[in-house]
Design a protein that fits this description.
Helices cover about 40% and strands about 20% of the residues. It is an alpha/beta fold. The protein folds into two domains: about 1-125 and about 300-335, Nucleotidyltransferase, domain 5, CATH 3.30.420.40; about 130-290, ATPase, nucleotide binding domain (Nucleotidyltransferase, domain 5, 2-Layer Sandwich). The chain starts with a strand and ends in a 27-residue tail after the last helix. The structure holds fe (ii) ion.
Amino acid sequence: MICLGIESTAHTFGASIIESDLDKTNYEKATCKILSNEKKTYTTTSGGMIPRELSEHHYKHATQIIGQSLDVAKINLKEIDLIAFSQGPGIGNALRVGANTARQLSIKTNKPLIGVNHCVAHLEIGRKLCAAKDPILLYASGANTQIICYENSYYRVFGETLDTGIGNFLDSFGRNLGLGFPAGPILSELYYEGKELIELPYTVKGMDLAFSGLLTAATRKIKEVERRKIRKEDLVYSTMHYAFAMLTEVTERALAHTEKNEIVLGGGVGCSKPLQQMVESMCKDRGAKLFIPPNQVMVDNAAMIGWTGTLMYKAKVKTSINQSMILPKQRTDDIKVTWRK
Ligand code: FE2
């Protein structure tokens, strides 16, 4: 069974070919071969993502990326059995390009269409590639920050950000500090040069988190860096330490509450070594297992859409053209997970 996955929730337009024998076997035994995972990412030197430019970027590259994905996989469009696309959540202008492209291909090839939830797809690709049985997903990306796990036919959100996603928080802090975009890799380098922990706000409300207070306080401290009262490295170390500790605390409480013992990382911030080390240390203390998928499937990618589409297709989920409208505000816990028992 061959699935073309299309991802376009935000800055990345991606296309992937997934080959699986799931139609002939069960989930545990089924293969998930990523034959290709191509993408083009919209970047700016300043000002963040402009929705109109974002859709122009995706429309400009959609045909090329899908063609590249087929070429790399050595697959002909006629050999595709189904077409999966990211239906939500995300930025409307970006989502619309992926949905339109998927609809057109579905009509042209007469192959079924499947709308996939982007956050659920992060969990499913991590679960499969890491062979985790029933993991909690710590999903830390630019726009999304959620702790998700399976309970009674739904992926429940056990904790999430109340304001900005952790990636956007780190990028805003990096921008205020005069770093380029994306700031994450430079911040991680500075983190390891930090020595002293500076006191900053720590905001965990129940199982949820908020980063705006931390951003305001850390940004104010930049003046002290300029006056050479504190070191830039110490401010970066402290800001990231507080943010990651908040995430780790909520993740640990989700482990305790659900009595699960596996964590899988997802999202671009999941690639951050300081975060990985902090979560790993917590897992070690609790006797839980941490799974870190390859970076290419932690950042936004179409392989996870193709794989989740394959799972949904096996469970007889299909999306008619009339049902294929984009869902920019779709929630992780809106989706009935009929493909898991
Ligand atoms: Fe994502």
